[in-house]
Structures are given as structure tokens and as C-alpha cells.
Amino acid sequence: MKWLVLDSIPEELPTSLIHLKHFRIYEMCFAEHHGLTFLAVLIKCSPIFEKLELEIDIGHNYCYENETCSGILEKYSDVRLEHLKEMEIQCFSNLKREMEFVKFILGTSPVAS
Where is the FBD domain (predicted)? Predict the structure, then answer.
């Protein structure tokens, strides 16, 4: 899946992705809150998720650095990444929304805790 365009991000997907173990996202944009929400919904609906490869689109993220991002992932705090073994992030630049996502992963994965 190279491109995914959504007008609005649902709270849950219409079906669980029970067989999804590995997902690679190219040019993930954390502009606004849609990127964080999309990843949280994807992870929530993938109970045996083992590996995430994420390449961040650095071209569009800097203009949103001053916006508040805390609380975006709080409603997904019940998500547990019981099977996550590996996560790779390329083009990570320590921006607030990227850090929010990493904190979310660390807080929901027993292997990382």
C-alpha cells in the first residue's frame, strides 16, 4: 500500500486485521493529528502485530512543530502490543508528534517496557 488517503480517521476499522504481522509505511506524515491517529487505529486493530517499518516524510512535518500534540493518543491507552518485536523508524527528527508516537509504543509494548 503506497498511498492511503483518508478524509477522516475512524476510531476503529470495520474489521480486525487479525493476520497482519508486518506493515511498512513510506512517507508517513505526522502533520496535524491524522498520522498519529491512523497508526494508533492500525495498531489497535492488529492483535498479532510484530513489526512496523516507518519512513517519516520530513518535508511536511516541520510546519506543525509548534502545535500541541499531547492527548492525541490518550484514547488508545488500552492498546497492548503483546506481539511487537521490532520497530524501525527512518528519518526520525525528534519532533513532538514523532516523540509522542514513540512514547505511545513504549507505553503499550510489554517487551519495550
Answer: 81-111
